[in-house]
What we know:
Strand order of the largest sheet: 2-1-3-4-5
Oligomer: single chain
Distance between the termini: 42 Å
Mean pLDDT: 85
Number of helices: 8
Number of strands: 11
Order of helices and strands: EHEHEHEHEHEEEEHHHEE
Strand content: 15-25%
Shape: elongated
Low-confidence stretches: none
Radius of gyration: 19 Å
Amino acid sequence: MSAARVLVxxxxxxxxxxxxxxxERAGAVVYDAPDGREGLREFxxxxxxxxxxxxxxxxxxxxxxxxxxRDMSDVPVLMLTARGDELERVRxxxxxxxxxxxxxxxxxxxxxxxxxxxxxxxxxxxxxEPDSYGxxxxxxxxxxxxxxVQERDVQLTPLEFxxxxxxxxxxxxxxxxxxxxxxxxxxxxxxxGDQVKLYIGYLRRKLSPDAPDEVPIETVRGFxxxxxxxxxxx
Length: 234
């Protein structure tokens, strides 16, 4: 499990703390989130190798989070639940979960299940997420949170950086305002679709102060926005 990135999404502070301790002892790098919305934001920014996901959470439950994850990735997901009946297990597996653990769980069993899922995903040829990105317009170093546009260093706020990362990690895909709010802002309380439009304007002007309309973030009227990377020059 050495250096594997594991995201724990659970509204119980004690469970998150316990899982962090167990998994870090086993060599994993652990991130956590106290609810589904924050979990999706962490998922998108951290790109974990495995997710441990609680089912019963307020605002956005584990089923909803699992649906969003499966829209974006086939990363292994281990579901946690207080219910152990067969129908609940079947529902989880049909929804795209890779394993299912009932609370209270055995510490060593849970670690063993996580290790087994990670081994299985490695054998299946799952590729590592790149640490950097580049096209004919810009380059991103996710480790250093650095953005270059034609060799010019662009200073972005954390939110602007997440917004740009969301676009380039979903190339040519139209993302609605609701999807962007969920993936970038996470907690959307008090935040509306106008915020998305506002920050896309900020982002375009920072990426290209003299020609913001030439930034390859396209407005698709009535649907949302998409990033179309320009072709590399020959």
